[in-house]
Amino acid sequence: MAADATSAATSGAGSPFSPAASPADRRRAFRDGLASGRIQRFVGAMNPLTARLIEDIGFEGVYVSGAVVAADMALPDIGLTTLTEVAHRGRQVARVTGLPVLIDADTGFGEPMSAARTVVEMEDAGIAGLHLEDQVNPKRCGHLDGKVVVPADEMVRRIGAAAAARRDPDFVICARTDARGVEGLDSAIDRARAYADAGADLIFTEALADESEFEAFREAVDVPLLANMTEFGKSELIDAGTLERIGYEAVIYPVTTLRVAMGAVEEALRDLAADGTQATWLDRMQHRSRLYELNGYADFNSFDSTLFTYGASND
């Protein structure tokens, strides 16, 4: 399913410090992918190295989840992270991949003026697009009960400010609505239309229940749509091919890599504590040689032939 536009954006030779594709290239690739007729799969990167792996496997984009940024700091996903912290993680991820990066910007970290500043900060970080949501601040995970959404006209101002602040017209502004679980599906559809009119390029409706609701939303909203396939939430897990058939342009897997990794880490730590050795885990670990492929040891060695002060074979 890899989009031709994305493949083109990631080709070419760059320095080991940055991808060959410029931020502008990656934003155009994101736009082209949304218009390609093929669903764009954005997988959540729990860290920059994971972003490299996502690109290497052949996905179309990388996602930076606010829930993952918070969890990485051992915080709950209730709006405790700051614009500075989230933008810093986004910059770290965007620096290492030639894929477009979509980032979770929560509610814009404040009033509409703060949402405008958020767009500028994310553009400067090399991000290809962000999504803003219509929850009150502080927000909570979209798949928990007890959410509260702001009035639709307040979110319209939030989106309008964000759209007015962007300097690169290819930077994608995605509007997320959490109204499905608060006000019902019809309200979420009405909000999505209003947000598109305010300048949103992509609509993300959170916590739809099942395939029929995804289909109903597609039939009612005439703008590009993003689906969230997070685990253990309120939405049925639908495969990418089915979402593409329904007509969705993008899908995110926000916390998958973190959950897989933390599950394995916890199991390995328990075995290490019980056995006093990690020997039984060697065939389940990523080998050192694979790690060196992903972090570009050879590229850094060849970047400047006079700098042979280290070597992969000696570590």
Automatic annotation (TrEMBL):
PANTHER family: CARBOXYVINYL-CARBOXYPHOSPHONATE PHOSPHORYLMUTASE, CHLOROPLASTIC, PHOSPHOENOLPYRUVATE CARBOXYLASE. GO terms for molecular function: methylisocitrate lyase activity. This is Methylisocitrate lyase. Belongs to the isocitrate lyase/PEP mutase superfamily. Methylisocitrate lyase family. CDD domains: ICL_PEPM. Residues 1-23 have a biased composition (Low complexity). It catalyses: (2S,3R)-3-hydroxybutane-1,2,3-tricarboxylate = pyruvate + succinate. The gene is prpB.
